[in-house]
Design goal:
Layout lengths: L1 H8 L7 E4 L8 E5 L4 E7 L4 H19 L6 E8 L5 E6 L9 H15 L12 E3 L2 E3 L9 H19 L5 H17 L7 E3 L8 E4 L2 E4 L5 E3 L1 H8 L7 H8 L8 H20 L3 H18 L1
Antiparallel strand pairs: 1-2, 2-3, 3-5, 4-5, 6-7, 8-11, 9-10
């Protein structure tokens, strides 16, 4: 890595210190520093490690190029493959604020709205992606209806994986299948395809002195309400975030009623990966509450 970064900078670069981000990242990650330049390095193991990091870099490039929102700059081409077949993503480290100010929260909302201003021709993408560690099928569906795409490409695949992981029972599977059948009547007004971050929890926006910077995207064209539902998926965001968003793009008055509808696929994804531990089991309760809300 030192050789790759040195070649990119045109000067010798050697790691003098580092910060371990293990408690904040889904993959092993470090910030590596010499006296004048810091690099964020994320390691992905396994046969598809290099491919997964390549998809992430492509997603950052897509969002940056199409929306103009700030993304981390790649270093040394963005990726270094290691002899064991794994890979490391290299991007310029960000000078993140320790505590977010009200203006930082507003900037997150504005950045997300700018992404959503980018329109597409169809729901989905020609490129598949990842949601956390799970591969994600982004192929458009024949009808080009959002509700079919959401059912076929998001809910049903992870309903199967959650069931196969014994994270949900047969009764929950049956209720989920009923909910899928009702998606057209629950989904609200039709929308045109809009570019999504794809995993827009607020932790995937880094607050800097220059504004919000997007990280860890999984982009495709979909319904903006899905991103909005994920924004406060793990923890609340203050009113400034929603106000910042609405400076650029509207939020339909019925979104609050549909928020849990667009979170269901993410509940299933978490249960697939973590359904056997305390963290994952919390989401089983949230899934049950959502089903109770929409099905009674």
């Amino acid at each position: 890595m030192e050789a790759a970064v040195s070649a990119d900078l045109g000067r010798s670069w050697r790691v003098g210190s580092w910060t371990d981000l293990a408690d904040r990242a889904s993959h092993p990650a470090l910030v590596l520093r010499d006296d004048g330049f810091a690099v964020f390095a994320k390691h992905a193991a396994g046969a598809d490690g290099a491919a997964q990091l390549g998809v992430e870099l492509d997603g950052l490039r897509l969002i940056g190029d199409r929306s103009g929102v700030d993304v981390p700059a790649p270093v040394a081409g963005g990726r270094v493959e290691l002899p064991d077949g794994s890979a490391v993503m290299l991007v310029q480290a960000l000078d993140e604020r320790a505590d977010r100010h009200p203006a930082d929260w507003r900037a997150i909302g504005r950045a997300l709205a700018r992404i959503h201003r980018v329109t597409g021709e169809t729901f989905g993408s020609t490129e598949d992606g990842y949601f956390g560690p799970l591969s994600q099928d982004n192929r458009p569906v024949d009808s080009d209806e959002w509700t079919e795409f959401y059912a076929v490409r998001r809910v049903l695949p992870w309903l199967r994986t959650a069931r196969d992981a014994d994270a949900i029972d047969a009764a929950t599977v049956a209720r989920m299948e009923t909910l899928v059948g009702r998606l057209p009547e629950l989904a609200g007004p039709r929308t045109s395809p809009r570019l999504l971050h794809g995993d827009a929890q607020h932790h995937n926006f880094v607050s800097t002195a220059k504004g919000a910077v997007v990280i860890d995207p999984s982009p495709y064209f979909g319904h903006p309400e899905l991103d909005l539902a994920l924004l406060d998926y793990f923890s609340p965001v203050p009113p400034q975030t929603w106000a910042g968003y609405q400076e650029i793009a509207p939020i339909d008055p019925g979104f609050a009623e549909r928020r849990e509808l667009w979170r269901i696929f993410a509940y299933l994804a978490v249960l697939t990966v973590d359904g056997d531990n305390d963290f994952g089991r919390r989401f089983r309760g949230r899934l049950t509450a959502a089903l109770d809300h929409y099905l009674g």
